[in-house]
Design a protein that fits this description.
seven-stranded mixed β-sheet; alpha/beta; 7 helices; globular; 7 strands; Rossmann fold; about 210 residues
Length: about 210
């Protein structure tokens, strides 16, 4: 079954030349649709700076949809509650173990919910803080100190966590930094240019890593 799922995943994404991304829709009341300008801006930046050819308009896909297998990377954000059914958790697990990648950006208030729901997906896995020498921080852009701080909430350090399945990073979770705020249009959060640039560079690294690992 695993081999079959893997075949289907790579057969489907090949028609997109592994160059599309999607935003993950979830139930529970949280605002999965937060930061609407973030991913389009990140796509534009990545295409311009990393020689990618990602479709300009990201699609929205539900956790229980087979459409998630069309994309090498899914983006997920929000402020509130998340809920996965058993069917959704199983579908997301199959996607991730078949070569997919999930980036989660805590938009403040997501942490306790995403940790709870990912236990349904991978009951035996624990988040590990990713060291600064990991490849995700060393793609086109280099982050020798690890994940950059973008948005202040609780005066805590920015952290990048990961879930590793059979040695492969399948989920990257940015915490206390809010990368996706830095990808939004400048007028929304009024972040300085250098802060937005750091956020976009880190986001481009995430996409590059997902496309090649």
């Amino acid at each position: 079954m695993k081999q079959f799922i893997t075949f289907i995943f790579f057969a489907v994404i090949s028609q997109f030349q592994a160059q599309d991304v999607a935003i993950l829709k979830y139930d529970g009341g949280g605002d999965w649709y937060a930061n609407p300008t973030a991913i389009p801006n990140l796509i534009e930046f990545t295409n311009e700076n990393c020689k990618t050819n990602i479709s300009k308009n990201p699609q929205n896909v539900a956790v229980n949809s087979q459409d998630i297998f069309n994309f090498p990377i899914l983006f997920m954000t929000g402020h509130g509650n998340i809920y996965f059914t058993n069917e959704e958790a199983s579908n997301l697990k199959n996607y991730l173990i078949s070569g997919g990648f999930l980036h989660i950006s805590d938009n403040y208030g997501l942490d306790k919910f995403i940790r709870r729901e990912l236990k349904k997906v991978f009951p035996k896995l624990e988040f590990k803080e990713i060291p600064s020498n990991h490849a995700i921080y060393n793609q086109t852009f280099k982050f020798p100190n690890g994940i950059p701080k973008i948005h202040e909430h609780d005066k805590k350090p920015a952290q990048g966590f990961g879930l590793f399945y059979e040695g492969r990073l399948v989920v990257f979770y940015d915490y206390e930094t809010d990368l996706s705020d830095g990808w939004e249009d400048q007028v929304i959060h009024n972040n300085p240019k250098e802060v937005r640039e750091k956020a976009l560079k880190m986001g481009a690294n995430i996409i590059e890593y997902a496309f090649t690992n």
